[in-house]
Write a structure and sequence with these properties.
alpha+beta; Outer Surface Protein A, domain 3; 4-stranded antiparallel sheet; globular; ribosomal protein; Ribosomal_uL6-like
């Protein structure tokens, strides 16, 4: 029974086919069944695909997990406790900070490190679960095998050399990557500590180091001077980087 604005009572008989066209707010008054709430996915929540896999420690690599402590962080005002994981190997030492809600269990006999989080329903903790695993995996690989980055200089007259600059050294025996990229002056970039630079060819630069973040950050710093452009395909390419060429605009 529905009472319109005029005051008359109108009786509507519904069938299975006509009930679909009744607005939702009239469904309770007409005693029609409402459709249940549907979710986008019915897959149950699963743990991180990477975080739940233990990290194997190769021979000759030592892992030391420190106790959590509060450290000043310039990116946030929150007092977040972090623990420092030190990974030492034949190629060097890498220190990694682990958040307080990520637990690292080191099995000395099995030579494995497993990561877990406190609450799997918190989005930030689930995101940092796999991220922390990846950082730790890169640290183990860096101190045992090392990380590399190959830069390709594509362009007429583009050249690179590794030289010494005694008046610009930040630390003892620092090397400098000197680039000729078509400017009126050569570009000189100091190699950061822990990274080794070599030039097997005039148009190739090889960067090596145990810390992947430092190696790729220095590669990005070199690439910034001549980023690949899409019309002639000139620039500095890192590893397997490619670029799709565009057609020239013809008026």
């Amino acid at each position: 029974m529905i009472s319109p604005r005029g005051g008359r009572v109108v009786q509507i008989t519904l069938t299975s086919s006509s009930a679909f066209y009744i607005p939702t707010f009239l469904a309770p008054a007409l005693n029609t069944p409402t459709r249940s709430k549907r979710y986008f996915s019915s897959t149950p929540k699963a743990p991180s695909k990477l975080g739940r896999v233990p990290v194997s420690i190769p021979p000759g690599v030592e892992v030391n997990l420190g106790a959590p402590r509060v450290k000043p962080d310039p990116t946030t005002y929150l007092q977040i406790a972090r623990s420092t994981a030190t990974v030492k190997g034949p190629l060097g030492t890498v220190e990694l900070e682990i958040p307080e809600y990520v637990n690292a269990d080191y099995d000395a006999e099995g030579k494995k490190v497993a990561f877990t989080i406190k609450n799997k329903n918190v989005k930030q903790q689930k995101a940092m679960w796999g991220t922390t695993w990846a950082y730790f995996k890169n640290a183990v690989t860096g101190v045992s095998e090392g990380h590399t980055a190959i830069l390709r200089l594509v362009g007429v007259g583009f050249r690179a050399t590794v030289e010494n600059r005694k008046n610009k050294e930040e630390y003892e025996d620092q090397k400098f990557v000197c680039l000729k990229l078509g400017f009126t002056h050569p570009v000189e970039l100091g190699v950061p500590k822990g990274v080794t630079a070599s030039v097997p060819q005039p148009t190739r630069i090889l960067l090596e180091g145990c810390n992947r973040e430092e190696v790729m950050q220095f590669a990005a710093k070199i690439r910034w001077w001549r980023r690949p452009e899409p019309y002639k395909g000139k620039g500095i390419f890192v590893n397997d980087e490619t670029i799709k060429l565009k057609q020239k605009k013809i008026k």
